[in-house]
Amino acid sequence: LKSQQDNFDDKPLDPTFGGLPIQNRFPNIVSLGLRLPLGKGRGESSSASERASQAGVEARRDQLRHLISAEVFRTTLSYLNLIASLDAVLLLEESAERHRNLVEITEGLIEADEVPASAINRVQAQTAAVLESVASSRLALLDGRFGLADTIGLSVEKLAEAPLPSEGFTMAVSSEPNADALIDLALEERRDTRALSQARDAQQFLANAARADLKRRIDFVATGGLSTFYESPFWRFLPDEVEDLPPDTPLRFYN
């Protein structure tokens, strides 16, 4: 939008009273241009960074989801191993108690001359082996408790603070799912493979943009517009001072 006014200072616009005989002009121009880089992949280069960033964000999200799944699986496995260690300790302690009773029974049989004295050595050796297994299982239980605490991020300063399982294995037998179906589902739902695919797409977008930048530039340009021209105000005059009236119309408008 542009306006132009020509006149003497402190004079009316009417040229009869000292104004210049030049109309005020108000040109208006509105234009619109469109440029398409057809020779460089129809804008593939300019949008590559945004598309690569979007693919990178999706890759990071899939990596995070895979990490969460892996940590959940690791925690679950650590908890199940802790249940197994506790059950092993209980079973071995029960077995050790039975072997102690077996030693007492064997000693009684030896005193009654029911079995030879050498039989006690075999029973005591079996009992010692079971007690050794009990000690090993207790150490495995301690490792499992502290391992679970480390997995879930629990700060433990003493043994009493180490977690223990709140339940044991169920004795109910359920039908096992098809192994092939589980493998297919695992391959389909793995987020790490999706993350790698998204990262590959991001790099492919950048590679395509670089390849497009090497092409010759061919632009399609379209321009359209509207221009108006308006002159105002009209000349004013005094009829008794002017013999011939101005031929111009009071208002002139050009489109």
Question: Can you describe this structure in just a few lines?
Answer:
This protein has 255 residues and is of the alpha+beta class. Helix content is 53%, strand content 12%. Helix 1 (44-111) runs antiparallel to helix 2 and helix 1 packs antiparallel against helix 4 (191-213).
Structural overview:
- The chain is α+β, with helices and mostly antiparallel strands and 255 residues long.
- The chain is 53% helix and 12% strand.
- The chain is built from four helices and three strands.
- The chain has helices at residues 44-111, 119-151, 179-189, 191-213; strands at 24-37, 219-232, 252-254.
- The protein has a three-stranded antiparallel beta sheet with strand order 1-2-3, with no helix packed on it.
- Helix 1 packs antiparallel against helix 4.
- The longest helix is centred in the N-terminal third of the chain and has 68 residues, at 44-111.
- The chain is rod-shaped.
Strand content: 5-15%
Helical region count? 4
Helix content: 40-55%
Radius of gyration: 48 Å
Distance N terminus to C terminus? 14 Å
**SS-based class:** alpha+beta
Oligomer: single chain
- The overall pLDDT, averaged over residues, is 83
The biggest beta sheet is recorded as:
3 strands, antiparallel
Which term fits the overall shape?
Answer: rod-shaped
Topology pattern, helix = H, strand = E: EHHHHEE
Task: Kindly report the spatial arrangement of strands forming the biggest sheet.
Answer: 1-2-3
Number of strands: 3
Q: Low-confidence parts lasting 5 or more residues at pLDDT below 50?
A: none
